[in-house]
């Protein structure tokens, strides 16, 4: 069953934690490509100096100010797409970045999209997810209820399995925001199913 937009209309840190174990599904040329979400990061609006919205509403961040349950896809370094999902309430520019998956369906297609990357390195980073699942800015602003990219219930994750740590690659943020434990991930030995 697909997750609804309403799933994302909640506290962003809670959503980031609750996304662990959910299945991300991309329908590409009639084939399902999927993986279990095993790492996320929360970005909580204009007051969070690590969040893109900390500089206010721009053409790039406009989708973050829109309704929850829509994708915020952006390009970094001119070459890597990053997949986020808008959370909280409309007008509150918050989102969750999907950082890593356990690959499930369509592994060979994902591997071809990643130029033969080994299974362990196939979708273990936000840019890798987008390469493997052919996610680009054409999905920016699209609802999570679309038939091109959606989320499903996935597998059960117990609270004891959820690990937290500071977010990655935010050296530009305030010391306080760099120290927040808003990165959620599953242990390396976690196996879905």
Query: Strand content of the residues, in percent?
Result: 25-35%
The level-1 CATH class: Alpha Beta
Using only C-alpha atoms, the radius of gyration works out to 15 Å
**How far apart lie the N and C ends?**
17 Å
CATH topology, by name, is 3-methyladenine DNA Glycosylase, Chain A
CATH H-level superfamily: Methylpurine-DNA glycosylase (MPG)
How many structural units, i.e. domains? Answer: 1
Please give the oligomerization state of what you see: single chain
CATH architectural type: Roll
Largest sheet, in brief, is: 8 strands, antiparallel
The percent range for helix content is 10-25%
Which regions are unreliable across 5 or more consecutive residues at pLDDT < 50?
Answer: none
Number of helices: 4
User: What characteristic shape results from the CA principal axes?
Assistant: globular
Task: Give the averaged pLDDT, no decimals.
Answer: 96
Question: How many β-strand stretches?
Answer: 8
SSE order, one letter for each helix or strand: HEEEEEHHEEHE
Query: Structural class, judged by helices and strands?
Result: alpha+beta
